[in-house]
Each structure stands twice: as C-alpha cells, then as structure tokens.
C-alpha cells in the first residue's frame, strides 16, 4: 500500500491520475451526450405517432388549429406534452415508461379501446396541466403579448376575466387538439356503481339516502305493489327506517314546510331545497313539530316530519358517495366551456336561477338536473356545510 502511495506521488502516478480523470470526463461527456441525444430523439411528433396506439389522437390533431392555421405556426406533440424545464422533462420521460407498458398490454390498441379510455386519459392530462398552471400552453401563449383588441369581443372579455380570476388555460380550452371525450361517462359510471350498491344497502341500513326520485306510499302493501303513491321523495333526501316488512320500509322524513305551501317539504328553513312532495290527500300525514319565523324574510316556517312506506330500491347509506357523484356531474357538465363554478359561489336560492340560465348548455335529463341543483344548493355559501353531514 505504501509503495502504491509513493507511486501516485511520483511522475508516473500523476500522469496516470490525469489520464484516468480525462478518460472519466470523456466517458461522462459521452454518456451525457448520448442520453441527451436519446431524449431529444423522442421529442418530436414523428416519434410520438410511430406508436400505432396513437393513430386516433394523431388523426384528430391533424384536424386542429395546432396542426394547420392561418399563420402557419405549428405545435407538435412535444410542445404540448413534454415540459421544457430539465427536471420535469426527465420525470415525464420516466413516467412515459408506464405508457410503453400499457402499449405492450394493448390497453388502447384499437379505436374502440381508445374511446373507452378517452375520458380517463383526458382527465389525467387536464389535471396535470392544471397542476402546472398550463405551463406548456404558456410557453407559446403569453398573456403580456396578447392584443385583446384583435380578439372577438366575447373571447377577449372571457380571456381577461379568466386571467383576473386566476384561471388557467385548460380550465376553458379543452378539446383544442383532440376530440372531447363523453364527459358523462364518469358520473354515469358512478351512478351505476351507486345503483348496484343500493340493492344491498337498502336492505340493511337504518339511515338511508335517496339515489333518485322515488314514490312513497301509505302502506307496506302499496309500496310492494307500486300502486297508490301518495307523494315523491327527491334525491339525496335522508330517510330514517322505522320498520321493515319484506322489501317495504317504513321511513321518516324530516324537514321544513313554508306556511301556506303545504305540499312541499324542504331540506332547510328558508331555503328552496326540495326534499319531498305530497299529494293533496296526503298533506294531513305531515306532522308539525314547531314553528319559526325567518327574521330576514318574515316568512313563517314549520318544522315537520312525514312517515310513509317505500320499497328498498335506489337507497344508499353514504351521503358522501352521493355528493361525490354530484361533484363529478358538476365538473363534467359545467367544467367544459369554463372552470366549474364552486358551489359556494352562490347562495342556495340563487343556484336555482343561475343553473336555469345555463340549462340550455348542458345535456342532463330532468332527474340529473334536479340532483345537480340539490348538490349545489346543499354546498352553497349559506347552507353552512349542511351538505357535508
């Protein structure tokens, strides 16, 4: 060992050390250059579309303004999907290995499979872009360089409002380079899962919530036969089970009744949030537990309860699952043209008119629309988090 140290201190050792360092530098530089070349060779549209799985995406891209436009400025795959900063770029390339595995498995190797996963893939990209404040969009589209006078008046107005509100590009600009997915896929799948779960939960739990509007009856016999309904219970209304008779449940509904409006039970005092309705001959079944006057409006409200019979279908035991369904529906229906307005942006009663004004832009059936309205109202700024309990 001593001889080796002495040799290193001598001319021969010093020369060897220098040579080793030089060789190390050359090897390191070569490795770095090779890695850089390999990475850059994957950052072009030709490489991206060489995978046949992406044929549908490429076909859609060629029909978009990112491929062809009046100015001739073209954005390719890496411009939108590969970060420029070194750190995020390296992470992105490592994450892409998972896509190679999916390609090997054939996850999206047919147009049908691609469409089946379109929403899932789109939501993943949208979430990433939102988390990075649409970094890749902003690498080309700079707010300070925009001449709003050259934009269409409505577009300029919306753009400036978005910047002022802190919105990010992807909040409004979805479906630019690729076809929008069927946004209803997510919440429809969630609904089917809730529907399947309700078959078991309705038979066991004592505190249940209505999944979709259902009739109630004056007797177990009528509930079993489905004839002679005396009213309707709206979605997300709480039911406490008092008794069971086979597949029929005797339940209690609690809520509020405005003086003079005898056929409607509301969730909260002073709020037009519907829980149940009663036919004229069933109004007498509604029991009044107390009376209060709303100090803000002067209206008289009665604390009420109603007992009736229902069948055990369309009933779930977890309100949070229902609200998750509502949140998904809200994002899918109201978050395509702009970022979805938070439920607490409006008062509960204001949501009735606000949602009505947007009804023509959404594709919900009447039942879904009523559920969405109740979800928003129960999470409004003045319901005090009532929708979370």
From TrEMBL:
Transmembrane segments: none
Positions that bind heme 4: 169, 172-173
Binding site for heme 5: 334, 337-338
Domain NapC/NirT cytochrome c N-terminal: 15-183
UniProt binding sites for heme 3: 137, 140-141
Location within or outside the cell: Cell inner membrane
PTM (free text): Binds 5 heme groups per subunit.
Membrane topology: Single-pass type II membrane protein
Entry-linked PANTHER family: CYTOCHROME C-TYPE PROTEIN (PTHR30333), CYTOCHROME C-TYPE PROTEIN TORC (PTHR30333:SF2)
Protein role: Mediates electron flow from quinones to the NapAB complex.
Family according to the record: Belongs to the TorC/TorY family.
Stated name of the protein: Cytochrome c-type protein
